[in-house]
UniProtKB/TrEMBL annotation:
Native organism: Methanocella arvoryzae (strain DSM 22066 / NBRC 105507 / MRE50)
PROSITE patterns for the chain: HELICASE_ATP_BIND_1, HELICASE_CTER, HRDC
Domain Helicase ATP-binding residues, every copy: 31-199
UniProt keyword terms in alphabetical order: ATP-binding, DNA damage, DNA recombination, DNA repair, DNA-binding, Helicase, Hydrolase, Isomerase, Metal-binding, Nucleotide-binding, Zinc
Domain Helicase C-terminal positions: 220-367
Protein name: DNA 3'-5' helicase
Catalytic activity: Couples ATP hydrolysis with the unwinding of duplex DNA by translocating in the 3'-5' direction
UniProt similarity note: Belongs to the helicase family. RecQ subfamily.
GO cellular component: cytoplasm; replisome
Amino acid sequence: MEMAVDKQLLRDTLERYFGYSTFRPFQEEIVTDVLEGRDVLAIIATGGGKSLCYQLPALVSGGLTIVVSPLISLMKDQVDDLLARNISAATLNSSMELWEIRSIEDQLLGGKIKVLYISPERITQDSCLQFLEKLDVKLIAIDEAHCISMWGHQFRPDYRRLSLLKSKFPKVPMIALTASAIPEVREDIASQLKLVSPKKYLGSFNRINLRYEVREKKDATAQILSYIARNRGKSGIVYCLARKTTEELAEKLRRAGIKALPYHADLPDTVRSATQEKFVRDDVEVVCATVAFGMGIDKPDVRYVIHYDMPKNLEAYYQETGRAGRDGEASDCIMFYSPADALKMRGLLEKEYTDYHLSRVAMKKWQAMRDFCETRLCRRKYLLSYFGEEYDDPACDGCDNCLHPKDTIDGRDIANKIVTCVTALGGKFGAGHVADVICGSSNQTIIAYRHNRNPAYNTGKPYTRVQWIGFIKELVRLGYLSVAGDKYPVITTNSRSKEVTFIQELRLTRPTSGGEAAFKPAVQ
Ligand code: ADP
Ligand code: ZN
């Protein structure tokens, strides 16, 4: 059933219907593969031109291309876009009236439609499948294919049922597309959809023009104000967790003379679309938004994306920061981070995910998000490796850690004191108490438990209590200590703790602020 693909025909069609003279990376190969009847798994970053990978074959194949897509609004946009290009397209989804569906079905039976967008719940209904089997289906495309995987960040149970498509249409090639897939998800997509030895295309996720930065969250509003004051006239988005924060922040920015508006799901549709329009037309500089903002907004010159709060995982972070710099010009991605925020997020996730498996996945993703915030290493490398991509450039020149490497100190002695202290405490106390013991406090708990006999008692100089807490947390992140406890977190030793006694090198971040020492007057 293989057919020779006419390359010239592909180029002509690309030019004629889409107005492009060249293919983006992978597009030509993918189009050729599906036309030759092969299954394809395409993992290409947002904006990489995935839609063309099934829209172009739809024009050359002669029959019908079915596209499964999760969002009605996205389907409508795509259909409008195709119709504007003179390509006959339609959608079948649950928001439609029966007569509309009948009319589309008639057109399909008459072979008048080339591209059909269907929601996952509809295409897996028996009646719909029976109908589709009557048509000359040439290709099935599964958009946002990561939704099929529990390891993904947007698992949709509806997508699971798509596994039956391969058995219903065994001869029809299938292409699965996603902009976001950690290695586990990739495997899952291929196996769930039962793709037959699929050709895999993995684009780079590196966005070289984006500069990543994580700042300690102290007075985020003031920091954001001063950043925007230095970047007047540029477009930016500030993502906040809470709807209330978007309102309050926008209000504060406006009082400082900055054109800012809030955006969140509670605002009326009319207000939201007006805000989007104003943003696209540069009538507003900054949108303070929840994650509801950004889908389907094609603004190439967003110069900065600020995260007022930590997102729940790196997929979300990548997607949200990815809205900056679509035009390829240098753009900033700044996140305000505090460990307290991270814990707050964990609490929210615990409430959100009640299913045991999904909750474990969410926690793992949360942990990676937090580690990204706290790492001293290249953030770009961290982000890319999360998506299974290797990045070998020793200095990316585009993240705070590469541009301003954090100063470190020899941490072996410090680590030794902490591990000694935690061991003697039997892993039953929190970081604050461990620091109290090391700093020689004589608070009630210490007296009551006789922790002044701990071998590490009062060995804390020259560091302050807050700085010791910082060291303890860093050792946890580095894996030399663990956090346990149901009610409140306690520090415990683990299998790697004893390494600190003989390790050759252990660097810890040189403490800068956060301790009383930082505020000591220069003159004693
Ligand atoms: P994705 O689905 O991967 O996020 P899209 O399919 O929406 O990407 O394409 C992103 C943008 O790139 C669209 O504006 C699209 O028209 C454009 N595009 C796609 N292919 C090409 C090409 N070969 N040449 C130029 N522009 C392209
Ligand atoms: Zn870097």
